[in-house]
Specification:
The structure is a homodimer. Chain A is α/β, with parallel strands linked by helices. Chain A is built from twelve helices and twelve strands. The first copy, chain A, has helices spanning about 25-30, 35-40, 50-65, 70-75, 95-105, 125, 145-155, 180-190, 205-220, 235-250, 260-275, 310-325; strands at about 80-85, 110-115, 135-140, 160, 170-175, 195-200, 225-230, 255-260, 285-290, 300-305, 330-335, 340. Chain A binds a DNA duplex through α2 and α4.
DNA sequence: TTGAAAGCGCTACCAG
DNA sequence: CTGGTAGCGCTTTCAA
């Protein structure tokens, strides 16, 4: 006997005074069918007569019933929940990514369980994603300890890295085209006549920053050009400090590539407001990501785009694949972007610095 | 008999080839205790002998066992999950809020289930938070249909509005001090000698925008000053268009208050780059929120702060209260901010426009 | 302090 | 197509 057995129009109040939601059992009684029938009525493609179904749905609506996804998860062993770990949301790229991820997964019937890694605490907080039985884990811009990766693997939970790579062969990753971007930027700056180059790294530990820098140098150094270098820690203030160091040096670079737009915007401000330089005339500043604010007139930043929608659709696809085929090979996708030329870089002789922005070149592509 | 009855060192592989995680039952067998004992070992303050507990924990570690929170939720009727609905993350205020919320709730042992409302689709997506049995719902910057609010109430799920109010007496809310901010801004602009005022609203439907405007007008209009007005739709481009309309008019305002920083930054760009005006000299521009970028040198924006940490700790406290005392009165907290004076507003005669930024005045406070 | 047993609300498998 | 029945993995009585 359940709760005194009576069926109420509205959620029954339990003995503690807390509201109890109606269950499939209540609906069944109300509709005069079995509890199984109620389950079927709410299961896509289940074998149930339309009439029965309608009767159940009507009863459910009257009682304000909704299937309890917790109970469903317990038996289906699918929580329809994706654990997402993001680091810092200051860099606009990540909120944009998060929003796109959320929409894309919602469209597939999944929800995001959000985990932010507070400064110090790495794994411990993240680790209990496993207790929540998320169907997959997506790590955007966070260190993944190999221990956690191993635990996820052991638990059969797919791990996907977004905008980050790892050496571990068991985890999939989706990144922008760091190599292509670094090369494109170097070539473009060379073509614009620059000869003194700088690079502001994100974090030394970041594969993303390293890959961009390596590709940039791979173009410049063979031609005999050195690259002045500073570390901006992916941070607004850090990038300002790095820029000051670069610009205050004897042979200050007149072309600086930043590991991302977030830092490039900070650098541009230092050049403009502290050194009185005009970006696009006295020096060129280039970022990476093409975040929304890069297009604002305060920055008008030349950058290499990371097409968020493509990256997200790629990672969603890979995630769903990994969920349905746990033994599938991990994916390592590189999504091409394109050089977006704006006013922060020197224009070719004869053209005004503030020339119209170029369209992104190239589309998405997966590469081995 | 479970799964053939054998206990493995590592997660057993089920028949479908999918990894099955060890259960409390497996751990019990391995440790030579009952399954109840395993449960107790993982329950804070349960009655269990230290020796037993250690034995269980050791066995659990060997098997890689983690309690299944889904199963726990089913019986405790607490998912330890908070549903958070955010609208658009372009405005940096919301990522900041989200990050702070996430950290604060994580510290209390709760996780955030993220729901973003795709343009168009309002309730439907959000509605299945109820199916996920979230312990509470926090709505930041999203319309709450009274229908959904009612459903939550019926389900006994507390609803909290963050940075937004409603007329419904059953939902709690935590907002910044829109009235105090609007007044402070008006008084400050008056004191700086402005006589032609403008306001750029967010959305007409937004209580936040309306409250700020009303307070602003309540100071200005009794003194005989009108307020030119445009709607920026809380959007970068919308704010630019609104600003153009204001500045192109015959009697253009020389002091414009924007419903938030996100729009104020756009407006400042229009004034500076399209109208050749120098903010802080030719006109004053004021925002609301004090987002991170407001302090960047490109904007150096005078604004009224919404102290995120205080708002978040307030909403977390209220949420936990509502969860543990479902019949508690809804909270309506207003968190005071302070006027942050930067270079985007005209300085008093004699002082340079780019005077050092002032410190926020006043601290947090809850008011009825 | 401990183990056995009874569910939480649901899905999935049976017969019918 | 339908109703019964057996669990999913856990917490929580209840006796011992």
């Amino acid at each position: 006997m359940r709760r005194g057995g009576s069926v109420a129009k509205r959620p029954v109040r339990g003995f503690g005074g807390v509201a109890l939601l109606p269950t499939a059992y209540d609906v069944a009684t109300h509709a005069g069918v079995s509890q199984s029938a109620v389950s079927r009525a709410f299961t896509e493609g289940a074998s149930i007569a339309p009439a029965t179904r309608d009767r159940v749905l009507k009863a459910a609506a009257e009682l304000g019933y909704r299937p309890n996804l917790i109970a469903r998860s317990l038996i289906t062993r699918q929580s329809r929940t994706i654990g997402v770990v993001v680091g810092y949301l200051e860099n606009q790229f990540y909120p944009q990514l998060l929003q796109a991820l959320s929409h894309a997964f919602q469209a597939e019937g999944y929800r995001l369980l959000l985990f932010t890694s507070p400064p110090g605490s790495g794994d411990p907080v993240v680790a209990d994603m496993l207790s929540y039985r998320v169907d997959a884990v997506i790590l955007a811009s966070v260190m993944l300890s190999s221990h956690l990766a191993e635990e996820c693997r052991a638990a059969g939970i797919p791990v996907l890295l977004l905008n980050r790579k790892t050496d571990s062969p068991t985890v999939s990753s989706v990144t922008g085209d760091n190599e292509g971007g670094g090369r494109a930027i170097a070539n473009y700056l060379l073509a614009m006549g620059h000869r003194r180059f700088g690079y502001v790294a994100g974090l030394e530990s970041s594969s993303t920053s390293r890959d961009r820098e390596a590709a940039y140098r791979a173009v410049l150094e063979p031609q005999g050009f050195g690259v002045a270098r500073a570390v901006g820690h992916y941070d607004h203030m850090g990038a300002k400090i790095a820029t000051r160091a670069l610009l205050a040096s004897g042979q200050a670079p007149d072309a600086i590539f930043y590991a991302n737009d977030h830092m490039a915007m900070a650098g541009l401000e230092v050049a403009r407001f502290e050194f009185g330089l005009v970006p696009g005339r006295d020096l060129s500043i280039v970022g990476f990501d093409n975040v929304g604010a890069a297009a604002w007139s305060s920055f008008d930043l030349t950058t290499y785009s990371q097409p968020i929608d493509h990256m997200v659709s790629m990672v969603v696809g890979a995630t769903l694949d990994q969920i349905s085929h746990p033994q599938a090979e991990p994916v390592r996708a590189v999504v091409e972007g394109g050089l977006i030329i704006r006013a922060s870089t020197r224009a070719p002789a004869g053209a005004p610095a503030g020339a119209p922005a170029g369209a992104p070149a190239g589309g998405p592509a997966a590469r081995g």
